[in-house]
Amino acid sequence: MKRLFPSFALILLTAAVCLAAAFFPCRDTAEPPPAVFVPVLLYHALAQELPDDPYNLFVTPGRFDEHIQALLDAGYTFISFGELWDFHANGEPLPDKPVIMTFDDGYIDNYTLAWPIIKRYGIKAAIFLADATIGDGEHLTWEQMREMEATGLVEIYSHGLVHHDYAALPIDIAVAEVLEAYENILRNLGRLRTIAFAYPYGSSSDELRAALLDAGFDMQVLTGGGLFDAVNGDYTAINRLQCKQGMSGEELVAVATNSMEN
Ligand SMILES: [Zn+2]
């Protein structure tokens, strides 16, 4: 027995080291994987003649065109949320400089003014809209959305059933409304899956984001500034860069490339 003891002790020591390594990995020295920043651009409306616009919601078609041209000239590729998700969930590659274009609220000028430009460049864009506003004269109709989606360039996603503050509602009612809005889009546009939701006013809470994730909303989009890190970022809190009329194409490229501020 005496001769066996050292090897028995060695086995015990090895087991202890393995257990310790399993329970206490070297967190202090582990580096997060390198970031892949994806600027997610936020537009609302286009107008030839700018109205009184305290919230910077409008850009002219000329400025919109300039933004796109500048980003393309700088080597950016417009991708869809579907492609972003494929990167995250399935490891599909992203282009070198990915960028996502989004519109909130689904104003009718997204079809009359932005869509001809989007189509001409052949770039991708996503529109988030609240069901209650669809076809009310100021916002897109189902027919217009079908036409844009059929080209594969535009994705339509939910901005809620009604354009209101979902974080202020009881969680179960908020989730039920967002699900109803999703099912309405599914029924009318016939797509298999609507995986993104943009919070009206960017207003969310940790509890609501978790509840919507449980309900299947893998990507949840806010309005705050900053570039989204597709590798280490939180897909239930995707920030966006608000694109303003006062921003030149060059300035937008600088913000998209260099800055975490907006
Ligand atoms: Zn909105």
Structure characterization notes:
It contains eight helices and twelve strands. With 262 residues, it is an alpha/beta fold. The longest helix has 19 residues, at 5-23. The model has no long low-confidence stretch (mean pLDDT 89). The protein binds zinc ion. Zinc ion binds at residues 104-105, 159, 163, 200.
Summarize the SSE layout with pairings.
Blueprint: H1 5-23, E1 37-38, E2 40-43, E3 45-46, E4 58-59, H2 61-73, E5 77-78, H3 81-90, E6 98-104, H4 109-121, E7 125-129, H5 142-150, E8 154-158, H6 171-189, E9 196-198, H7 206-214, E10 219-221, E11 228-229, E12 241-242, H8 249-258
Parallel strand pairs: 2-6, 2-12, 3-4, 5-6, 6-7, 7-8, 9-10
Antiparallel strand pairs: 1-11
Helix pairs in contact: 2-4, 2-8, 6-7
The structure holds zinc ion.
The structural class is alpha/beta
Count up the domains: 1
| Strand-residue proportion | 5-15%
Order of helices and strands: HEEEEHEHEHEHEHEHEEEH
| Main sheet properties | 6 strands, parallel
Oligomer: single chain
In this entry the ligands are: zinc ion
> Roughly what percent helix?
25-40%
Kindly state the mean pLDDT as a whole number?
A: 89
Q: Between the first and last Cα atoms, what is the distance in angstroms?
A: 72 Å
CATH level 3 topology: TIM Barrel
CATH superfamily: Glycoside hydrolase/deacetylase
Low-confidence stretches: none
CATH architecture classification name = Alpha-Beta Barrel
- The coarse silhouette is globular
Radius of gyration: 23 Å
